[in-house]
Amino acid sequence: MRYFVMVTRMASEAVTSPQALEDLEKQAMAKVREQCPDVEWVQSFAVLGPYDYVDVFRAPDIETAQKVSV
Questions:
Q1: What's the rounded Cα separation, in Å, for the pair 45 and 64?
Q2: Beta carbons of 22 and 16 less than 8 angstroms apart
Q3: The domain at 2-68 falls in which architecture?
Q4: Would you say the pTM of this structure is higher than 0.85?
Q5: Distance between start and end Cα atoms, the chain
Q6: pLDDT at position 37
Q7: N or C: which end of the chain has fewer CB within 10 A?
Q8: CA distance 37 to 59
Q9: Phi and psi (nearest 5°) for 43?
Q10: What does R_g of the chain's alpha carbons equal in angstroms?
Q11: Residue 49 CB: number of other CB atoms within 10 A?
Q12: Half-sphere exposure of 38 (CA within 13 A, CB side)
C-alpha cells in the first residue's frame, strides 16, 4: 500500500468546543472506515498556517485515496 498525505482546513463554525472537534473527528473516521475499509490511518498532525491538519494514511491505490478526501 502507498502512503498519502492530505491537508485539511476546518470551518470555524464546525468547531465550537473541544468536544465538538472530537465528535467531528469520530464522525469523519467512521465514514472513512465505512466507505474505504482498505484505508489504514497512520497519523494526524495539527499544524499552524493555512491548513489546520495534515493527515497521513495508507491506501491500495489513488482512487481509494481520493475517496478519503471527499
A1: 21
A2: no
A3: 2-Layer Sandwich (3.30)
A4: no
A5: 20
A6: 95
A7: C
A8: 9
A9: -165, 155
A10: 12
A11: 7
A12: 12
Residue owning grid cell 474505504? 36
**SS3 of 1-68:** CEEEEEEECCCHHHCCCHHHHHHHHHHHHHHHHHHCCCCEEEEEEECCCCCCEEEEEEECCHHHHHHH
For the segment 15-64, what is each residue's pLDDT rounded down to a tens digit?
Answer: 788 888 888 889 988 999 999 999 999 999 999 999 999 999 999 999 99
Lookup result for grid cell 472513512 = 32
Residue 56: what residue type? V
**Identity of the amino acid at 2:** R
